[in-house]
Structure of SDR family NAD(P)-dependent oxidoreductase:
Amino acid sequence: MKPTALITGASSGLGYEFARLYAANGYNLIVVARNEQKLQQLKEELSHVDVMVIPKDLSQPNAAQEIYQTVTDQQLHVHVLVNNAGFGLNGEFDKLALAEQQDMIQVNITALTDLSYLFLPEMKKLAKDSSHTGILNVASTAAFQPGPGMSVYYASKAYVLSFSEALHGELKGTGVHVTTLCPGATETNFFKAARGEKMKLASSAMSASVVAKQGFEGFMKKQGVVIPGRFNSVGAVAAKFLPRSLAASIAKNMNSAES
Ligand SMILES: NC(=O)c1ccc[n+]([C@@H]2O[C@H](COP(=O)([O-])OP(=O)(O)OC[C@H]3O[C@@H](n4cnc5c(N)ncnc54)[C@H](OP(=O)(O)O)[C@@H]3O)[C@@H](O)[C@H]2O)c1
């Protein structure tokens, strides 16, 4: 029987590429996002595997529980959970709508945490018969420093990295593996969604297919943290050694052309 990967945010960008990769590597899929039409198109495109479409707004507090219920009602078993859905908002904290920033926390942090919690117990059982069982969480290079001009987004990704690294350590020996993918700038709808007209898209921006492939391969090799691209890896190391205030002012410059 084929293993199953549940991928959030599969309607575009990195999540769409993850869906193609997992399908190409023999996984059935459960795909989640708000845009049902795009998910149905994905299902048609990947007709060589079973694809279950779950349209869901992850900013709703009960979203993770409802997804879990739908999956268990269909007696499906999730071997791999890819917590990829997420978004950023560009702008100063007190000038952005509070409700939108709360939605961001709900999608980037709470849904990711809840889905991990709900699917983990069965993953531990499945891991006894499957060597690639686990969670692939999508953080960002934003996780490595504070980000003036996108403060809640950077903080949310710092949570994803810290939480995922802790789970990676906690689950050693259980057969359930946790990888954190920390992409830098990647060519997706992210910047449009963040309304970041002022953000400078780095010339080093990578394609979504390359970034997703590196995340997928890192997960298969049971790596803890994957940072795609030399530029991003060097930046992550630099952020560790620079004073936090200097790292923050570099991020501020990237998030606002006016700085
Ligand atoms: N692109 C970059 O430069 C970059 C860099 C570092 C990290 N990342 C991270 O990579 C992940 C994927 O983003 P992307 O770059 O591929 O951007 P994207 O093309 O905008 O994709 C974001 C995905 O998240 C889903 N999503 C957003 N809000 C949602 C909600 N409320 N409920 C359910 N699904 C929701 C979207 O689906 P619907 O709109 O259909 O709901 C979409 O499928 C995110 O976690 C992002 O933070 C991106």
Remarks:
- DSSP finds nine helices and nine strands in the chain.
